[in-house]
């Protein structure tokens, strides 16, 4: 117990020089990853990738898509959240279903 008290005091006051050092970083260069290829459409224009975001009307748009023969999951919000929102859903057959929702009232675009 008598030896434990001085060790605790040293640790509380900043510790020993051995504990303050950070290990040296290895001198291995990080392997550079090649950039993913840019997607382009048939005309050569670049295709922008939009991250998937859930909105307040995502489930409503999925149900609306099923009524229009589009079997898919994950209606993503394309615009910023607000009173008027646009959603995008990828159908199982490869088509894209778009819907516009104004104050949570959604219609097919």
Number of DSSP-assigned strands: 4
SS summary, helix count: 3
Q: What fraction of residues sit in β-strands? A: 15-25%
| Alpha-carbon Rg, integer | 28 Å
Q: Give the overall form.
A: elongated
Q: Based on helices, strands and strand pairing, what is the structural class?
A: alpha+beta
Order of helices and strands: HHHEEEE
- The share of residues in helices is 10-25%
* Spatial ordering of strands, largest sheet: 1-2-3-4
Straight-line N-to-C gap: 77 Å
Whole-number mean pLDDT:
80
Main beta-sheet strand count, sense and barrel state: 4 strands, antiparallel
As residue ranges, the low-confidence spans are: none
Task: Provide tags for this entry.
18% strand, alpha+beta, four-stranded antiparallel sheet, 3 helices, 109 residues
Put the structure in a nutshell.
The chain has 109 residues and is α+β, with helices and mostly antiparallel strands. The protein is 21% helix and 18% strand. Strand 1 and strand 2 form a beta hairpin.
Walk me through this protein's architecture.
With 109 residues, the protein is an alpha+beta fold. Helices cover 21% and strands 18% of the residues. The protein has helices at 4-12, 17-20, 58-67; strands at residues 76-77, 84-90, 96-102, 105-108. A four-stranded antiparallel β-sheet has the order 1-2-3-4, with helices on one face. The mean pLDDT is 80.
């Amino acid at each position: 117990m008598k030896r434990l008290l001085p060790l605790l005091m040293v640790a509380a006051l900043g510790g020993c020089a051995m504990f303050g050092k950070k290990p040296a970083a290895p001198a291995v260069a990080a392997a550079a990853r090649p950039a993913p290829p840019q997607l382009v459409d048939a005309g050569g224009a670049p295709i922008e990738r939009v991250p998937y975001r859930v909105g307040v009307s995502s489930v409503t748009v999925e149900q609306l898509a099923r009524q229009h023969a589009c079997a898919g999951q994950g209606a993503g919000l394309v615009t910023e959240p607000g009173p008027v929102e646009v959603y995008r859903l990828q159908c199982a057959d490869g088509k894209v279903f778009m819907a516009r929702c104004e104050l949570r009232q959604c219609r097919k675009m």
